[in-house]
Design a protein that fits this description.
Elements (H helix, E strand, L loop, with lengths): L8 H7 L29 H13 L3 E3 L6 E3 L1 H10 L1
Length: 84
Amino acid sequence: CPYALGPKAAEVFADLGVDLSAQPTRRPLLRFCVDWSEQRHHLAGQLGSAVTEAFLARGWLRRRKGQRAVDLTDSGHAALAELL
């Protein structure tokens, strides 16, 4: 089942620091993906990468040293609770 963005996606993602009008790449914007460790769906593709980078830049996420994992910071938790 393909994913699709809703009519307010550009506005919502802009508030999160993600520009949906950025130049497309060969990577799909949205992709079906299940996390291998938790067996849960997560945001993958170009959009998932853009959200991750925006959250890291804002200090909402912090990378775990030597791992691919990230942690939600206290400021990220507060910001997302307010925005969403």
